[in-house]
Automatic annotation (TrEMBL):
This is Methylmalonyl-CoA epimerase, mitochondrial. InterPro entries: Glyas_Bleomycin-R_OHBP_Dase, MeMalonyl-CoA_epimerase, MMCE/EMCE_epimerase, VOC_core. One of its GO terms (biological process) is L-methylmalonyl-CoA metabolic process. It catalyses: (R)-methylmalonyl-CoA = (S)-methylmalonyl-CoA. Belongs to the methylmalonyl-CoA epimerase family. SUPFAM superfamilies: Glyoxalase/Bleomycin resistance protein/Dihydroxybiphenyl dioxygenase. CDD domains: MMCE. Residues 56-185 form the VOC domain. Its EC number is 5.1.99.1. Methylmalonyl-CoA epimerase involved in propionyl-CoA metabolism. It comes from Falco tinnunculus. Keywords: Cobalt, Isomerase, Metal-binding. Gene3D superfamilies: 2,3-Dihydroxybiphenyl 1,2-Dioxygenase, domain 1.
Amino acid sequence: KEKDIGTFSKALYRCCSFFFSGLLIRWQTSAPRVRTLSSSNSFSQNIPSGLWKLGRLNHVAIAVPDLEKAQSLYKDVLGAQVSETVALPEHGVYTVFVELGNTKLELLHPLGDRSPIASFLQKNKTGGMHHICIEVDDIKAAMTELKKKKIRILSEEPKIGAHGKPVIFLHPKDCHGVLVELEQA
């Protein structure tokens, strides 16, 4: 019996070794490779050193036809922290911010007949992504440089945005179809 157990153990060992070595080889060849940017990459060499710098993504703005339903979705269904509604008559919108930890969503609803959100919702009845907002460290320098690069800015001067900071909007046709808001950090 001891001989049978020894033979069985050896056979089991060989079988497991074969099986696990096959798994290890498959894992090594199918495991995703992580690529990193090195300092020698040409990617970083093509970025001009300007007088201003882009910062973090501040928020993604979503136009909504029903602000209360949208607030309820993010607060009651998804469990997010949702701000109170704030009216911004100079921009023609009501805003609500949804905190996401690493950024925010800005829910936009029309305020007044001339609201840009009203015209957006006429074309997009169920709402949708309206713009992205990126922080900059010097909004005036950004405006000057962007104008030199033929990027259209939708206002002559920055306006005070929902966070109480100066903002500008860049024409979506100059930004690959995306309305971009720049906000002073």
